[in-house]
Design goal:
- InterPro entries: Tubby-like_C (IPR025659).
- There is one protein chain.
- The chain is mainly beta.
- It has 1 helix and 12 strands, in the order E-E-E-E-E-E-E-E-E-E-E-E-H.
- Strand 9 and strand 10 form a beta hairpin.
- It is globular, with a radius of gyration of 18 Å.
- The relative contact order is 0.18.
Length: 173
C-alpha cells in the first residue's frame, strides 16, 4: 500500500491529508507540525481518531509514544548521538535505518522490510511517499514519518520577487 502526505504551507488548521495510491484521501493528520512536542492525531476522514503521537521524555534519550486504538502503547526511541541517528520502535521491534535527514529510510523487523519512506521536495512543499506492506502498520508508520519530517524539514516562507528583465532592471549606479 502506498500513501502520500503533502506537507506545505497551504494546509490550514493544522491538517495534512493522507492519500492512497489512487489519490483518494484516507486519513488526516492533525496537530501543530511546527513543534515536535505537540500531539499529532491520525484520524479517518469522518473524524474518528485512529491514533496519536506525543512526546514523553527528554535528555539523553528522546522518547515519543504512539497510542493506537485497540493496540498497546508503542514508544519511539531516539538515541541522541553525534555518530549515529538511531531510532527504535518498541513492542513492534522496528529499527529505522537509512538517512532520515535526506528523507530516505525504511522500517525493519529483523531483516524483513516493513515499510519505506521517501521524501521529495516539490514546488509546493514536501511530499512523503510511504510504502507499507501490512495494513496493521499504517498508523504507526504514518505518525513516525510525520515526526521524523518535523525534526529534519523546516518549512520556509520565502518572499516573491518580481522578475528581473527589461521592464524590471537593477541599476547599481
Amino acid at each position: 500500500m502506498r500513501y502520500l502526505l503533502e506537507l506545505n504551507q497551504r494546509q490550514e488548521y493544522g491538517q495534512i491529508p493522507v492519500a492512497n495510491e489512487n489519490g483518494k484521501i484516507r486519513y488526516i493528520i492533525e496537530g501543530n507540525l511546527n513543534n515536535p512536542n505537540h500531539t499529532l492525531y491520525l484520524k479517518t476522514v469522518n473524524g474518528t481518531e485512529i491514533g496519536r503521537l506525543y512526546a514523553d521524555g527528554n535528555g539523553l534519550i528522546s522518547s515519543f509514544t504512539i497510542d493506537v486504538v485497540n493496540h498497546s502503547l508503542v514508544k519511539v526511541k531516539h538515541l541522541n548521538n553525534s555518530l549515529a541517528n538511531l531510532f527504535y520502535i518498541t513492542r513492534l521491534n522496528y529499527l529505522v535505518t537509512g538517512n532520515i535527514k535526506n528523507g530516505r529510510y525504511k522500517f525493519l523487523t529483523g531483516v524483513k522490510k516493513i515499510a519505506t519512506v521517501q521524501t521529495t521536495m516539490v514546488k509546493i512543499g514536501v511530499v512523503l511517499t510511504c510504502k507499507i506492506s501490512r495494513p496493521e502498520d499504517v498508523p504507526f508508520i504514518l505518525l513516525c514519518a510525520t515526526l521524523f519530517t518535523q525534526w529534519h524539514t523546516t518549512p520556509l516562507r520565502l518572499p516573491t520577487f518580481p522578475p528581473i528583465g527589461p521592464r524590471y532592471n537593477v541599476n547599481f549606479n
